Amino acid sequence: xxxxxxxxxxxxxxxxxxxxxxxxxxxxxxxxxxxxxxxxxxxxxxxxxxxxxxxxxxxxxxxxxxxxxxxxxxxxxxxxxxxxxxxxxxxxxxxxxxxxxxxxxxxxxxxxxxxxxxxxxxxxxxxxxxxxxxxxxxxxxxxxxxxxxxxxxxxxxxxxxxxxxxxxxxxxxxxxxxxxxxxxxxxxxxxxxxxxxxxxxxxxxxxxxxxxxxxxxxxxxxxxxxxxxxxxxxxxxxxxxxxxxxxxxxxxxxxxxxxxxxxxxxxxxxxxxxxxxxxxxxxxxxxxxxxxxxxxxxxxxxxxxxxxxxxxxxxxxxxxxxxxxxxxxxxxxxxxxxxxxxxxxxxxxxxxxxxxxxxxxxxxxxxxxxxxxxxxxxxxxxxxxxxxxxxxxxxxxxxxxxxxxxxxxxxxxxxxxxxxxxxxxxxxxxxxxxxxxxxxxxxxxxxxxxxxxxxxxxxxxxx
Length: 463
Prior knowledge:
It contains 4 helices and 34 strands. By secondary structure, the protein is mainly β. The protein has a single domain (17-462), classed as 7 Propeller (Methylamine Dehydrogenase, Chain H), CATH 2.130.10. The strands form 7 sheets. Strands 3, 4, 5, 6, 31, 32, 33 and 34 form an 8-stranded antiparallel β-sheet that branches. The longest helix has 19 residues, at 20-38. The chain starts with 19 loop residues before the first helix and ends with a helix.
C-alpha cells in the first residue's frame, strides 16, 4: 500500500440493544476475535505525500498510567550485519523518495515492491524489482504478535515492527538497527523522526534516528485510542468514560499538538467523536451530539473544524434508524473529492453507503450493500478504508467469518474475498495486485498460526 491511508476506525463491535441477550454468546466470540486479529490502535497516520486513509495498531489495555513500569530508555542503536547477497544488485537503481509510503503487507516505490511472504509468525520482507522480476529476502521476522503491524518506507530506509519493537533497515539489507524496545506502534514519520504510540504507558512519543525517545503527550483515555499524524501536527481523541452514570466525564475531546508536544489545542468536544480519517490534506471524523441529536461529519483544517454534513434524529428515524445506537454510523473512507459513510438500519435489512463531497455538496445514497453478491444476511458495518482507488469495507457477520469487499470507485464493481479466511487488517492493494494474509480454515482465535500465510493475487483474476 503506497502513499495511502488507512489508518480505519470506530471499532465498536456491539449490536443493538434489542438483540443483546440473543446474541451475547456470539458477541463474545466476535469481540475476542476482533481484539485478537482484526483490530488495530484505532490509530491513523497521515504524513506528507499520503492521499488516502489507513488504520494502525491496538494499544495494550492498562489499568492506569504507571511510569514505573515504562520500558527503559532505548540505548544508542547499533547496526546489525545481515546477509545481503543478491539484494544490492536488485536495488541498485532504487530511487529514494522524501514521501512516506506504508502498508501492512506491501509497499511500492517506483518499480520496487516490498512485501511480506511466508507464515504469519515467521515472515520474510521481500524486495522485488518489478522490471526485472528479481527478488530477495530483505529481513526475516519471528513475530509472536497476533496484530499485524505496518511497514514504512522513507528515503533508503524501511521501518518495521518485530514483537512490538521498532527497527530500521536500509533497502539493500544493510544497517539493521533496533530504534525502540518496548510495546510501540508507529503512527507516522515527520522530519525523519518516528511518531509512535507507546502502548504500555499510553504516551505519544517521538523517536529520532539515534533511538532517543521524547514523550510528546500522555493520554488519559480509555481504549480504543485514535491518533492521526498530519503534516502540521498530531490529532488525537481523549475519552475518559463510556458511562454517563459512573461520575466520570463521558465527553470525547479532539486535541491537536505540534511535533514537539507543544501548542495543545482542544478542537471539538461531543458525547462521541470517532473514525478519524484523512485524505492527506484534511482530517475528517464523525461526531454525535446528544443535545441537538445529530450525526455530523466534520472537517478539520489546522486547529478549527467545520461541519460538512448533518443528519438529524428525525431524518434517521424516517430511514428506520434507531437514534442513537452503537454501530449506527461508520466513516468508511475519504479521498480527494468524497467522504463515504455507512448507516446500519434497524434489523439490518438495509446496509447503505452514502457519499458527500469534501466541501459538503451533493450528499446522496452511493450503494446498498445488501445488493452485493453473496452478502451474509447478518452482515453489518465494522470499518472501512481507502486503498488505491478502492473502498475497502469490512462487515461483521455475528458468528460467521467477516466479509471483506473491495468496491471499485470508478464503476461500483465489487470483489468479495473468498476461498479462505482473510485477516482484514493485512489487505493492501497495489495496482492490479492484492496482498494479504489468510488461513484456509476458519480460525477466529488464530489458534493454529501454521495455518496463516501471506500471499498475493491479481485483481483481474478476482472479478
